[in-house]
Predict the 3D structure of the following.
Amino acid sequence: MVNRDWTVLGEKVTSWINEAADQLRASLSKPLEVSEKSAHNDLVTNMDRSIEQFLIGKIRADYPNDKIISEEGYGDGVKDKRGVLWLLDPIDGTLNFVMQKRFFAISIGIYENGNGKAAFIYDVMADELFHCITGSGAYQNTRKLSALTDIAIDDALIDLSPTWLKPNRRIHEEIMTEIVRRSSGTRAYGAASLELAYVAAGYLDAYFTMRLSPWDYGAGLILLTEVGGLCSRADGSPIDILTKQSVLAARPGLHQYMSDHIREQVNQGRFIKEPE
Amino acid sequence: MVNRDWTVLGEKVTSWINEAADQLRASLSKPLEVSEKSAHNDLVTNMDRSIEQFLIGKIRADYPNDKIISEEGYGDGVKDKRGVLWLLDPIDGTLNFVMQKRFFAISIGIYENGNGKAAFIYDVMADELFHCITGSGAYQNTRKLSALTDIAIDDALIDLSPTWLKPNRRIHEEIMTEIVRRSSGTRAYGAASLELAYVAAGYLDAYFTMRLSPWDYGAGLILLTEVGGLCSRADGSPIDILTKQSVLAARPGLHQYMSDHIREQVNQGRFIKEPE
């Protein structure tokens, strides 16, 4: 166990986030340096890098023994979950940041020996902070989020990209079809941390993707767990917070229905394939 | 020609919308009466009806000779486009209104002899009014929207429902596949009037659906046209503002690319089918 005052940590992180958000808002009126990473829609900007360095500087100054996994690579080469681990995305939804100048978030999830302890997901332009210290309830700004209740698939709003409904390398394109067809509708906002926070807040009933990185889901997983939501890989197996993987996040009964459905489809011979 | 001061009309409509929005915000803390229309995800609430009646009352009092087409049916049986015609949706995105309590809009488009004259799309919870008087520029609250410039499909954010990418009655499921695959990404917010406004504001580069009603697209079409965007049926043919139809709305060059692609696919034997 680490001897730590999580409330003090929460206050510090919130003030760092506010400072970072000021820098991000100010940057919107200046030219942005954008470059491509793995693909033409996988972007990084000078602001992703500078906000990550700013936040890592703050973490290192106050918590020098903690480890950090972060999107732009200024963190550590983390091999195990011992101690306190920060999963940090300086700008989740970089494509939205570049193209929409809104619907992007700073996402910070903090784990102790693999257990979620604190989460912060800040929608910078909407000034909306989803946050929790594990065991003390989850909040959207000052509003306490309710425990998630059950919902039938027919009444559910599902967030997923059409990518997973067309031929792709990760999931047979028919596996999610029945779920989408039975649902009330689908949504896609393009910022995973916010989409997970929306499930926690009840704006969405489920979020599904076949590929998500620790910095994308790290905070959302903690927030969702705090309100009784479930978060696993597509087939229902547990998330390993050190790796890229599929993520199925939903209200509890709906999570059961969806993961059962996916496992059944796999048992019938349709494939799912986790990222390497 | 109708002798009308459109600026005065704009001021009146804005004040009616503000009053209606107050009623909507107040309603969120009370139980909502929800019933199904054509399908389990086609909802109407007591508030759709009461806001429509409120707005129609205001229109009738000040503009008694105008005609109204509205979602919940308190308008007129309109057969032609002569005179002044209001296309009115009291709550666009009813599913969002019921389930998310946000991301819904009041949408009002006003045509004179078939020509767009004024548009108002109000995101009630975000307090964001997209509006224009034709010829005087389009605005997001007080910010003037820029004329839309061109974008390559590879850099474009496309808003469409996965419905149109899976087998359905309206469009062969492969027609939009290449567009989605080439694009930067897809989004779906679940409120057509806002999605059209987002194209006008540059948050999205295109919006596509195979089925939309006059009250859904009436205001968006005017707003988009004002900033140089294009809005047509899927195959590029003109919108008839009196009927339900497909809608393809996009930046000018992208609109050309997408409608060309759809027509080519149809020429190669794949079907599209307009709503009856």
Observations:
- The mean pLDDT of chain A is 96.
